[in-house]
Amino acid sequence: MTARHDAAGHLTSAAFHHKQAARFHREASRHHEIGKDYAHAAHQALVAHGHGLRAIDYGNDAGTYFAEHDRKALPKYPEAVPRFPLKSLEPKGTIRADLSGAEHHTAAADHHEQAARHHGQASKHYDAKEYMQAAHEMQIAQGHAQHSVFHGDEAAKHHVEHFGKSGPTAELS
Question: Fewer CB atoms inside 10 Å of the end CB: C or N, the chain?
Answer without folding.
Answer: C
